[in-house]
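dumping the sequnces here before i forget
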Amino acid sequence: MYRYYLSSSDFGFPQALLLLLVVLPAVGAAVVALFPATRDRQARILATVVAGGTFAISLLLPLFPSSDRGWFAYTPLSSSPQLPWIDLDLPWVPDLGLRFHLAVDGISYPLVVLTGLLTVLCCAYTIRGSGRALSALLLVLEVGVLGTFLAFDLILFFVFFEVVLLPMYAVIAGWGGPDRRAAARKFVLYTLAGSVLLLLGVLLVVTRAGTGDLIALAGGGTLTRTTQCVAFALLAVAFAIKAPLWPLHTWLPDAHTEAPTVGSVILAGVLLKMGTYGLIRVAVGVLPQGAAWASPVLGALAAIAILAGSLICLRQHDLKRLIAYSSVGHMGFVLLGIATLTATGIQAALLGNVAHGLITGLLFFLAGAIKDRAGTGSLEQLSGLRETAPRLAGLFAFAAIASLGLPGLAGFWGEAFAVVAAVHRGGPLWITLAVLAAIGGALTAAYLLRLLRRVTHGPATPAVHAMSPAIAPAEWFAWAPLIALTLAVGLVPALVLTDTLGVQP
Amino acid sequence: MSQSVDHVALLPLYLAAGTAVLAFLADLFIARRAAVLATTWLGTLATAVSALAVGAHAGTFCTQGACSWVPTWPAAVTAALFAALTAGVLAFSAPALRVGFAPAGEFCFLLACSMTGGVVVAYAGDLISLIVGLETLTLPLYVLVGLRRPATAVAASASLTFFLISVVSTAIALLGIALNYAATGAVHLALLTAPSPSFRAVSEVGVALLVTGLAFKVAAVPLHAWAPATYDGAPIPIAAYLSTASKLGGILALAAVVTHLEARAILAILAVLTMTIGNVVALRQTRMIRLLAWSSIAQAGYILAALALGSPGVPAALAYAVFFITLEFLAFGVVVALCPPGASAGPITDFRGAGRRSPWLGAALVLSFAGLAGLPPGLAGLFAKLSVVDALIAHHWSWLAAVVVLNAVIALAYYVRVSALLYTLPPRIGLSVADPVLLDAALHPRLPITRPVAAALALTAALAVILGFAPQLLLNALT
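..and the predicted 3d for all of it:
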């Protein structure tokens, strides 16, 4: 068992930072929730400050690298241990094998930063609008998501995975659109079904391996092939519901469409990433034999997801619903990358994750802004946006073009290299999947251009005529970082991959 | 031959029985409601403290290497829990007793008697003590279920249903014990072993009958039908007691039996039926207490699933029971606080918007329901589920673990429905003559929460939160 890293698990300043990353938003949420109703605005500002503080802490983490920064270099053959930069390992419930083990490394770090960033932006966005309870819930969501990305103990991972369920339900059911109840219920039951499978899989691994430590378990540990296959099947379905992978995606369009703008942003931006991250870290990382066994199925489903997502998008008539379905296609690329089980594929998946979080977050912000101003999200009633609100139309065009994967913007790298990885994997199956994914990529361009033609061009409809073109400062504040990062990651993808480059498959 | 009796080991029992007697005498001589309540309350406190203070101790009433009174740590913790639940029910009943809902003296006496039975069940080391304890726990409850002024037909029918079912179940359990004694010659739990081959059939029938009799007490499906009707007809605090303390008695008895006797198959069947049917029927409930009753049936199914493992599952089952009882008691407490003193709870739709009107009560109920569903922020419930599923998977009963977790998904559907209703805005009225929120607030004035109820709720909620963050405290205490 790899216990030699223990020397780095003393409690020092870096460990305190890691702990604070989870504790600060939790405490912040409690304080914000306890604010009196008369001080609603102050509470929302406080929530933004807390989220900002958390984001700042997340930016500090790379200043404390451990001496040896090795990425986990997963291939089915090698199983070198993951060495986190900062490691915090405390006992919590020994009888259940649960340790409070947080750590951060190159796989989780970009997602941690993304979560911190999107939460700040969403909290800032809610300062204009509705109640402090929403801000508090956003902070609770942040606790769950950050905890999931940081957890290095399987059971702790599960506990944090569960934390987001009810707050997200409350966000959708409390602040959503007209059909929010049904959408929220569908979301919560679907995702709970996923997480109970996760519970079974996690406990199966922990009881058979005798430890929940992800570092010790990396590469499979002592698990037999049968256990690995069973556990992988359970975990893969659990994460596929969360990601979501076709055909388990049906909760997603309703949830996204009915959720308030910030809910959609968090849901698409970071909650879906819990699924793909879990697949990389836990399912593939801990159960390589199971992953090798199931990878053709996973790859085929991912390719179908890309095609199905694109085809469904071509027929959508609602702005938010279209963007929601586009997530199915984009996450399909991420899953295809993971399914190839090559270093290129997994790096493509990491990039795709971050890019999707940035671009879809931006798209949902913009769609929410358009819907709020025009009072409708129906594509029939939206057209000619560039005549009445040229800036908004320009931003929307930028986001849509980024989403379709124009080289030079963030969306390109993840999708292109997922296809490249599939080709590299070779064999008739993977070549076919690569071709299908490439066709899906072309379809993605088709539906996003159709969307742009509908919304920005053509004669202005009455709804669009009545829109106010002004963009509020809070909106600029929420959108500008996403625009800048979409460009930055597109031009320098190494920003996301610094710690994972130089690994040969 | 005289037996040496260790009175220190028996201290919790003395104090519990003394509480009952004192309550009776206080009512006789002082005849003031407050004095009787205070006496009983102090008695329950003393019982709880003494149980924890005695802790693990040498057994007493011993013969042939086995004892009838076995003070172990799990016994001490559960005895203290019985006393704490009694104290909580007293606090919840205080407003109703103040308005003359039931005679305080009789109420306190009966409740203290029931607590005494609970203490006996916790410490019992032989099957006879176990049954005597269970009966002492249950007998006063027949009266308490129906004890209300003015008497109503619903309460009387609830009481009678409960009485008949209990008597039948006790008879079945006794027959089981008798058959088992005939086969093995043992009543002490420590001496219960597999019988010689020629008596195996008799012993197996005996165990099956014993488990069946005890399954009535925990309201396991198909022996559950009394529970929803009885809970709904009983005063809410007594329903809380039935669904927590009375159920704990049955669980402890079952745990004692399965530790020593083979009953895995029958318990596995009961567990699957109980959790599945409990959850599915709970989905369709429209009355608050019935919903809690069916959910409590389903929760007992998870405990039975752990008990189906035999002795390895007992710690997980007890841990689940304690977590569940804390959360369930909290839920009942919130319902007590949201209803006028002595009133019944009524349909679930009456609770619409209650969380907006009383944020603290709403938060407590959400904490409780989240915990019962096994989700954060109810971490106590999450760890409860985790310990049961962990035990099942570790002992290669993965199929039963799968049934447990799938049931958790069904259960979430109704927990989430009720929780969401607490925060739903009032329905729009046809004419916009008034702000619906203001109108709703005027129609549903916030009821004042009396101090005992508030204190009991705060303590239960605090316990639920503490157990959520430090479940190891409980797991240590139970082993």
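Chain A has one domain: 13-497.
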